[in-house]
Design brief:
By secondary structure, the chain is an alpha/beta fold. Helix content is 44%, strand content 16%. The protein is globular and about 50 Å long. The relative contact order is 0.14.
Amino acid sequence: MSQWPIGVFTSLDAGLGVRMDVVADLKIPTIHLHSPHHGKRDEAQAKDFLAQCEAAGTTVSCIFCGSDGESYADIPTTVKTVGLVPEEFREARAADARVTAQFARYIGCDTLGMHIGFVPEDRQSESYLDLIKVTRSLLDDLAEHGQKLHLETGQETAEHLLDFLTDVDRDNLFINFDPANMILYGTGNPIEALKKVGKYVRSIHCKDGIWAKNRGVDWGQEVALGEGDVDMRLFIETLKEIGYVGPLTIEREIPEDPEQQKADISQAVALLEKLRGEILES
Ligand code: MG
């Protein structure tokens, strides 16, 4: 596959991605998939999905873990409900990620993505140390099957994410870099962050956003690609600088308005194709 194929974040029954008919209509060659709901990840369902991919002419490069009960309603709710971080859900989420990993194997996909949650600041705290233990155990299981995990950025600063990767100390743990999340969560300048964590970046989301007035307290606003504060040209130039060659996977999180979502993705494809051509030639 040539450098920087276009991708899109896709959903079947869960998550905020686009539906497969959009992937087919826009002839998108690669996708990230949000894990289907609990009970919808068996072998027959995986085969059915693979047939849809084949019909659409696309391949899956990453499957994102997602569990029932996670909510991104506001930042405090996200802290309490998302990922492996909330202690009351930690074991159940790790078990659910293993089910998603099996679903990914049915599909022939070696990469899982995950919002792990807001990693505790205190690296000596019991909660942090247990999180390290649970994450390692999951990674070791994935490694047995030749699979890896990409952590989604945004809920931590780049520095804290690097600390976490160092502390987990496993060679199948990488980063899915989402520049808009750094803005939406108010965790730092996305381009500076990308340079800092660049060597771990193995997948990305092309998503845009506008800073909140109250950074880190209120959500910023997710907007169509090219209309936010990311600076997509500089983002793609920086991807070139760090040596990233994988898919440019567009994310547009407005499933409540499928017409607009499709229009925005179509416009994002055009923008990325233009930038890709210009930046690869320069
Ligand atoms: Mg993302």
